[in-house]
Design goal:
The chain is an alpha/beta fold and 296 residues long. It has helices spanning 24-30, 33-39, 67-86, 101-108, 140-144, 150-153, 177-184, 193-199, 201-210, 245-258, 278-290; strands at residues 4-10, 43-49, 90-95, 115-119, 167-172, 189-192, 218-223, 261-267. An 8-stranded parallel sheet has the order 2-1-3-8-7-4-5-6, sandwiched between helices. α7 (177-184) links the parallel β5 (167-172) and β6 (189-192).
Length: 296
């Protein structure tokens, strides 16, 4: 029986300052995501976009942010993810900024424990008390592990959605000072770019996957700023020294070989900052690799 993939857009840009990531789902679709998935033999259903308010029509609130809007959108993403899993499909979420993951990962983990590989230049492990910027897209992993604003922590169901011991951070290279301290005490496994440089991408990737041998479900949350800005310029918070084109593809191919992947986020594509849709194209190609495309 062919596996079905449900594409779910979450075009939200309330979690950060830079405009444009709300167009990320459209860019991925335009680049050929659905036909590329179909070429691998999947049955693809595009379930459209979660309803997101127009940011220009909203006033900044809650100490300078959009907490109520993010809470509402993430609740909707949670329900969409939960329903997709119930329907026995593979939910593929298109963001939007990384705060969408509060809802998406909460939803796919509603009925059973889920392992998480968070591929990102940043840890997104701040709380309102530690964040220098106050931007919620720098907090979703903390929220998912039960820390932060209670409105966000309790989206979908009360409290923690993911156990820290079931989280791997991969590609990290830009951390705030207080965030570093929190991360060291968290129980989360971290593969920084130094670790990847020293060990090699294949060794680091396989070590990361070893964390999930006991898990039946694995979700990857791919922030495109994990990739070096030379390859992925269309992101809001680029950091030099990221994963190369081939490193990123090999990591996705190794994840695909594991047979563990059951859901995925693709976030932080900003077409306004991109060059000839380069970042969206790479994002789609990496997704296809994660879902089974191989060289031979």
């Amino acid at each position: 029986m062919k596996k079905q993939i449900s594409i779910i857009g979450v075009p939200m840009d309330f979690g950060q300052l830079h405009r444009g990531v709300d167009m990320g789902p459209a860019a991925a679709r335009y680049t050929g995501l659905e036909p590329d998935l179909c070429s691998l033999g999947y049955i693809v259903e595009d379930r459209g976009d979660v309803k997101v308010p127009v940011r220009d029509h909203r006033k900044i609130n809650e100490q300078g942010g959009y907490l109520s809007e993010i809470t509402a959108v993430c609740n909707a993403a949670y329900e969409a993810g939960k329903q997709a899993v119930k329907d026995d499909t593979f939910p593929l979420f298109l963001g939007g900024d990384h705060s969408i993951s509060i809802g998406t990962i909460g939803g796919v983990s509603h009925d059973q424990p889920t392992g998480l590989i968070w591929i990102d230049a940043h840890a997104d492990f701040n709380t309102p008390e530690t964040s220098p910027s106050g931007n919620i897209h720098g907090m979703p992993l903390a929220v998912l592990t039960g820390e932060g604003d209670e409105n966000l922590v309790n989206i979908g169901r009360h409290g923690r959605k993911i156990d820290p011991e079931n989280v791997v951070l991969f590609g990290i290279r830009d951390l705030d000072q207080k965030e570093k301290q929190r991360l060291k005490k968290s129980g989360i496994s971290v593969f920084t770019m130094r670790d990847i440089d020293e060990q090699g991408i294949s060794s680091a990737a396989n070590k990361a996957l070893m964390k999930f041998l006991h898990m039946k479900r694995l979700h990857i949350s791919l922030d495109m700023d994990a990739i070096d800005p030379v390859e992925a310029p269309g992101v809001g918070t680029p950091v030099p020294g990221g994963l190369t084109y081939r490193e990123a593809h090999l990591f996705m191919e190794i994840i695909a070989d594991s047979g563990k992947l059951t859901s995925m986020d693709l976030v932080e594509i900003n077409p306004i900052l991109d060059q000839a849709n380069k970042t969206a194209k790479l994002a789609v190609d990496l997704t296809i690799s994660a879902l089974g495309k191989s060289i031979l």
